[in-house]
From TrEMBL:
<comment type="subunit">
    <text>Homotetramer.</text>
</comment>
<keyword id="KW-0964">Secreted</keyword>
<keyword id="KW-0325">Glycoprotein</keyword>
<dbReference type="InterPro" id="IPR051764">
    <property type="entry name" value="Avidin/Streptavidin-rel"/>
</dbReference>
<dbReference type="GO" id="GO:0005576">
    <property type="term" value="C:extracellular region"/>
</dbReference>
<dbReference type="GO" id="GO:0009374">
    <property type="term" value="F:biotin binding"/>
</dbReference>
<dbReference type="InterPro" id="IPR005469">
    <property type="entry name" value="Avidin"/>
</dbReference>
<dbReference type="Pfam" id="PF01382">
    <property type="entry name" value="Avidin"/>
</dbReference>
<comment type="similarity">
    <text>Belongs to the avidin/streptavidin family.</text>
</comment>
<dbReference type="InterPro" id="IPR036896">
    <property type="entry name" value="Avidin-like_sf"/>
</dbReference>
<keyword id="KW-1015">Disulfide bond</keyword>
<keyword id="KW-0092">Biotin</keyword>
<feature type="signal peptide">
    <location>
        <begin position="1"/>
        <end position="21"/>
    </location>
</feature>
<keyword id="KW-0732">Signal</keyword>
<feature type="disulfide bond">
    <location>
        <begin position="25"/>
        <end position="104"/>
    </location>
</feature>
<dbReference type="InterPro" id="IPR005468">
    <property type="entry name" value="Avidin/str"/>
</dbReference>
<protein>
    <recommendedName>
        <fullName>Avidin</fullName>
    </recommendedName>
</protein>
Amino acid sequence: MGSLSCCLLLALALLSPCAVAARKCDLQGLWRNELGSNMTLSALDAAGTFSGSYHTAVAATNKQILVSPLQGAQQHPSDKGQPTFGFTVQWQFADSTTAFVGQCFIDRHGKEMLETTWLLREKVPSHRDTWKATR
């Protein structure tokens, strides 16, 4: 009996990483970051595009922060695994737009995580000021 339970435990331990690795990242739903911002993403369409909304918790403005629309696309939506994606947010409370690119990962516990990089472009009064328009 002892060797049977040991073999079963070993078999479950060996199968667990495979089950997690076979999971597919799903961008649809509510996402929150470590700073308290959140976004909601719609389901992907057949072309891999999606829409949603972004509510930032961090902004350099005195204006009221509003929920802002986003549009994006996921690379190879039919592939399994950890896809890359990109989306833009048109801020409703500022004259700026942010472009995000990233990848969805699944950790060994099955938790989905989005790792992203972003560029924010704000409106400037003239071409001379373009050097300070992108962060």
